[in-house]
Structure formats: structure tokens, C-alpha cells
Amino acid sequence: MAKKKLRITQLRSTIHRKKNQKLTMAALGIRRMHQTVEHNDTPQIRGMIRRVEHLVKVEEV
């Protein structure tokens, strides 16, 4: 069975955001606006998304 993937796209800037939010975006591998990355759907990734959910768009692939 194939694992579910999440496609995460940055929609809002990290300028003037808290340091932990900037570090979370970097940990997700997102460096610039409108960049998209794919990750396996794990509880760790879901937790990271929850921390920056106001900055990103998430789609299940």
C-alpha cells in the first residue's frame, strides 16, 4: 500500500513572523513564496503544518 503524501505550498510570507514559525518552514524545506514540497503524511509533519497553517496551503496527493 502506498503511503499518503501531502503537498505543501507557501502562500504567505514569513517576514515579521515568530522565529519558531520561520524555523518550522525551513524544516519543511520551504524557502520562498509559492514553493511547493511533498512530504509523507506523518504525525510529525501534521504537527509542523499545524504550527504554520496560516502561511501554507495543504493538499493530499
Per CATH, the superfamily is: Ribosomal protein L30/L7
First-last Cα distance:
14 Å
Low-confidence stretches: none
Mean pLDDT: 96
* Major sheet: arrangement of strands: 2-1-3
Task: Explain the overall architecture.
The chain is an alpha+beta fold and 61 residues long. The protein has a single domain (5-60), classed as Ribosomal protein L30/L7 (Ribosomal Protein L30, Chain: A). Helix content is 31%, strand content 26%. It has a three-stranded antiparallel sheet with strand order 2-1-3, with no helix packed on it. α1 packs across α2 (43-51). It is globular, with a radius of gyration of 11 Å. The mean pLDDT is 96.
Provide tags for this entry.
61 residues; alpha+beta; Ribosomal Protein L30, Chain: A; three-stranded antiparallel sheet; 2 helices
Secondary-structure topology with pairs:
Elements (H helix, E strand, L loop, with lengths): L4 E6 L8 H10 L7 E5 L2 H9 L4 E5 L1
Antiparallel strand pairs: 1-2, 1-3
Helix pairs in contact: 1-2
What's the short story on this structure?
The chain has 61 residues and is an alpha+beta fold. The chain is built from 2 helices and 3 strands; from the N terminus they run E-H-E-H-E.
